[in-house]
Automatic annotation (TrEMBL):
Pfam families: TrmB. Transmembrane segments: none annotated. This is Sugar-specific transcriptional regulator TrmB. InterPro entries: TrmB-like (IPR051797), Tscrpt_reg_TrmB_N (IPR002831), WH-like_DNA-bd_sf (IPR036388), WH_DNA-bd_sf (IPR036390). Residues 7-73 form the Transcription regulator TrmB N-terminal domain.
Amino acid sequence: MESVEMLMQFGLTRQEALIYITLTAEGALSGYEAAKLTGISRSNAYGALAELVAKGAAYVVEDTALRYSPVPVREFCRNKIHRMQELMKALSKDLPERQSDSGGYVTITGDRHIMDKARNMLRACEARVYLSAAGEPLRQLQPELEALIRAGCKVVVITGAPFELVGATVHHAEKRPDQIGLIVDSSSVLTGELGQKEASSCLYSKRKNLVDLFKTALKNEISLIELRKGTAEG
């Protein structure tokens, strides 16, 4: 993801993000200078600069000419995150409690959304996790796995990549790099494919039959790994 797209995730438009990047590179600029450097029309540049100020991404510098200075990117992002956390607390308080899951099958698409779901499943874990995945998803989920280990949860990982995690049980076997399987507390499962960006797709469910089926498959895979390991050592 490029810088412009990342800034858009923090509420800036494409033009605002482009001008913000220019401000961080060049320092304080007037509307005329920002328009000239970015190729954006002067009227649009002035509008974007005003929005950057309103969104907390720039300051107005009163000099011989009106200029705009960027808020440091870490400060801007931290302020946005802090505000979103405040809004999350308010919404959690104001909105009604969600009814329990109906137990259906939910399709989650896109690498980012799939990984978000996996993280949230891990954060909600109370006792045990079984995770089957290749190297990159494991790397992204490692902070959550480490937090679970510190909390005393059981963590079992099956992977084909070189991977060690102190406090976890790690089994090594050949794995397709685009597959992920996750069971949390024997109550929810996420399984499917990653690595195809927006085309990636996973199935999420709390249906007991699917959870039990996937749990049995993982246990059988672990038994086979142990059997092969014992045969090789013998």
